[in-house]
Amino acid sequence: MNPSVFYVKPKSGFLAFGRMVRSVQTHYREIINFFDRRSTNAASESFNAKIKEFRTQFRGVKDRTFFLFRLAKIYA
Asked: Residues in domain Transposase IS204/IS1001/IS1096/IS1165 DDE (predicted)?
């Protein structure tokens, strides 16, 4: 599908509408992919949330190598 299909000539002057149109133009493949295959990035978002929670539990860790080792052992 061609992104020019989503082209809307900005007549209204509403900035929010223009941003929404640009967002759809930029991400139309991902949007169509959801409706075709019902696939989302929920798994990666969940993993990112787990990493953030792990980081908050281990504030002040100075050894980055050890931090990454623990992260891999717990969530791998």
From this structure: 11-70
